[in-house]
Predict the structure.
Amino acid sequence: MAEAQIYLDLKADHDKHRAMLKELGELSGDAGKRKKLFENFRIEIAAHAAAEEESLYATMLGNPELRDDARHSVSEHKEVDDLIGEMVDLDFGGDEWEAKFHQMRHRYLHHIEEEEEEMFPAASKELDTATEEQLADTFEERKPEELKLAKKQPAGSDERE
């Protein structure tokens, strides 16, 4: 059976995030380049998380079999978002930023691995094809809008327009 588009969309974003994290982790000495790449990562991950919450997580929260997974993932989004907010105020060339980056990267990679290996298969078993197709449509519609919103918001902000 083919994997539903919603999971393919989310995994494609995760692969993009892994690549961005790898590039950030390999940068040293160029605080300006690191800051620019980090801002691109921040915007991308904020938009991804919001669109994912508005599509897949919203549906999972309404299903008693999936609710705990969705709550757990939302809390991990918040944890990573808070770490990113802390990083913005640090010296991008400093040791403290580097240490916080490694902490954030570890937490985020753990989160997406857990989603891909546990949460997506569980959701796939519970959700019908029509629901999964609607979730993909919602995600694909919301992601560009969330990118626009994320560009306007400061890192770690709980403010929404």
The helical segments are 5-26, 31-61, 67-88, 95-126, 129-152. The radius of gyration is 16 Å. The first helix runs from residue 5 to 26.
